[in-house]
Amino acid sequence: xxxxxxxxxxxxxxxxxxxxxxxxxxxxxxxxxxxxxxxxxxxxxxxxxxxxxxxxxxxxxxxxxxxxxxxxxxxxxxxxxxxxxxxxxxxxxxxxxxxxxxxxxxxxxxxxxxxxxxxxxxxxxxxxxxxxxxxxxxxxxxxxxxxxxxxxxxxxxxxxxxxxxxxxxxxxxxxxxxxxxxxxxxxxxxxxxxxxxxxxxxxxxxxxxxxxxxxxxxxxxxxxxxxxxxxxxxxxxxxxxxxxxxxxxxxxxxxxxxxxxxxxxxxxxxxxxxxxxxxxxxxxxxxxxxxxxxxxxxxxxxxxxxxxxxxxxxxxxxxxxxxxxxxxxxxxxxxxxxxxxxxxxxxxxxxxxxxxxxxxxxxxxxxxxxxxxxxxxxxxxxxxxxxxxxxxxxxxxxxxxxxxxxxxxxxxxxxxxxxxxxxxxxxxxxxxxxxxxxxxxxxxxxxxxxxxxxxxxxxxxxxxxxxxxxxxxxxxxxxxxxxxxxxxxxxxxxxxxxxxxxxxxxxxxxxxxxxxxxxxxxxxxxxxxxxxxxxxxxxxxxxxxxxxxxxxxxxxxxxxxxxxxxxxxxxxxxxxxxxxxxxxxxxxxxxxxxxxxxxxxxxxxxxxxxxxxxxxxxxxxxxxxxxxxxxxxxxxx
Length: 637
Known about the structure:
Distance between the termini: 116 Å
Oligomer: single chain
Strand order of the largest sheet: 1-2
Structural class: mainly alpha
Number of strands: 2
């Protein structure tokens, strides 16, 4: 028993001795460092150096030897300091902190190649910025004719990411994003989006990345931050004039892109506010321009003509939607005179001409008043509306087409001309359409998309449904290289992500005509809905690409297949999104019909009354409303 106790005591004593010895070693190092630091502070340099020599041992931990290295540097003993690092690295060749410190030392000494070779192990670590600097400096000093574009390749993305990790300078991750953007990898570029922005240009850049990824909410948020940062920059700037010019340039771009973001979010009112801000801002710039402002440098800062023409056009369309016909006319007139080859502006001008010359059917009372030379206020207002001669719109289109080939404008010109032609037979009209197709054929069953769309719609309107569908199917098959013998719709869904919205919508249209309701619904749903997972929940929202016609047709399919609630919801979405009173009225009429079928008279009456209010000429809504009111009146009696 005594032997066992003695053994235990020996073991315990040994443990205590071991722990005590370790504690003494650590304490002695700390104490020695404290003594060295005191000697340094008192200017006793040689004493400090002697203590460092005495303390340094190859067996010490890397962090301790780095402490010795730093004190040698502090004493100006750079050679001794470097020897400590080299010795430490021989024993700890993979220690990232040692590699980082020595690589940084080599860079300071101009030994770039050695630093580059040593620091490769730092790539992807928290010290990656040192490797990034070594690599870039090594490339620059190689003298092998390296150009800017040599650095603009995917191989450098991790290098720039490392540089950002060490510096938190957003310019490095902008490089990462820019390389991906050039390669068309938009989603990958967005992954580098920072939480905070360095300056206005930084915020604007990331807003464009969000916009290109169709992240319009995020783009709008970034642009609003860009505006607020610009205001701070101009106040804090040492060079007020240069900062002011920078702010002016960026504000013009911000207003423009923010307006477009709101358009894509169907926030028409907010979009018009930003366009108005931009146009007002341009007016202020004109008033504020000094002699130096008129230089080529300042002119180059202004938005490009195509940007400005789009802004004026969008404001004109907003005015039309809000029945400000005089404002719309002024904007469109300015548009076509300032930018005579801007196709969307010429097309809008042509539509204005067509609508302003459309004959209005007047009731007998109005006709009698006119005969007597009397005008009501409404008649006076109508007669004073601005009008554009259709011949003027066509002439402007012809002038532009003579200078540039533009199929979109060409088709719009055909439509405008057709609107003024009374066709004595569909045969003649059909022949005209096929002549247009033949003149613009690119190959067997292959045409410019604008021509294909014009032809399919025109042939269908001539009551040649099978011919229209046949032309459409052959065009789609050829354009997207469908497999011979495969089911048309199977191939269509496989290629749907490549297709234009009108192509998907026409395919759904023909599927509906062929009683393929499920196929049509799936096609329309692709256009109408944006579906994604958010916080592990499935979210469905209306897509920015959704058209009113696609939404209406999908709602009609829902209604005919028993999904009445879904149909009512979708008709309601149409009514809330569209700026057209006619479309609003039609969607409300259809809601009213569905409520009527459910015998929900109260909601049916509300919908029908609002439909008639928005469009008094909606005869079906008027008829159903009068029938319901008459029936309810009889019930009361």
